[in-house]
């Protein structure tokens, strides 16, 4: 889970992903928000200071995969006892709010140097897992109408288009597509989610024996 020491890196990733949106999210304040939940993906063997001077590596996902195996195996990825990431190098983060049994995803963001490595999808999987843990039943989100990659990812995990918010984004007045999963408790969704998650883990070489659920 995100901790206070992560705020600077999370803010940096957020500004990189959404440079024209203003004002930017105050993540220190969000940590005090009981409705908000944030997770971070870290490169296991790298600190923030080291990462700033190292060249990006195609193997950067390896450390993250190792951590994911351990977290899924021992505490189903999320636990109140999970150690804080401290100064570990944060690759990406995701956040959502829960209100009256409904989870609303506010962000799924990955550093530019680490995109196309499956990390965004891993974060989405993790958010859905945590929503299940928190006993919410309905998930919603907004995504830019032009963001085809994100639309395809959300569709892959069972989100369907439920509306359009005209001029939603303040930077360029682009429309937002509203997407949702109506009930994550249904057998059909659970089966679809498990298969999609397993396929993603196979693609990145994570042993299925290490996957919880």
Describe the structure in your own words:
This protein has about 210 residues and is of the alpha+beta class. It has a single domain (about 5-210), classed as Gcn5-related N-acetyltransferase (GNAT) (Aminopeptidase, 3-Layer(aba) Sandwich), CATH 3.40.630. Helices cover about 35% and strands about 25% of the residues. It has 7 helices and 6 strands. It has a 6-stranded mixed beta sheet, sandwiched between helices. Strand 3, helix 5 (about 120-135) and strand 4 form a beta-alpha-beta unit.
Q: Could you outline the blueprint of secondary structure elements for this entry?
A:
Blueprint: H1 7-17, H2 27-30, E1 36-47, H3 48-53, H4 60-75, E2 88-99, E3 102-110, H5 119-133, E4 138-144, H6 148-156, E5 160-165, E6 176-181, H7 187-203
Parallel strand pairs: 3-4
Antiparallel strand pairs: 1-2, 2-3, 4-6, 5-6
The proportion of residues forming helix, as a percent range, comes to: 25-40%
CATH superfamily: Gcn5-related N-acetyltransferase (GNAT)
Mean pLDDT, all residues? 81
Beta-strand residue percentage: 15-25%
Count of strand segments: 6
- Total domain count: 1
**What is the first-to-last residue Cα distance?**
20 Å
Helix and strand run: HHEHHEEHEHEEH
The shape is: globular
Low-pLDDT regions: 55-60, 66-85, 209-213
Evaluate the radius of gyration: 17 Å
Give the helix/strand class. Answer: alpha+beta
CATH class: Alpha Beta
Q: Kindly identify the CATH topology.
A: Aminopeptidase
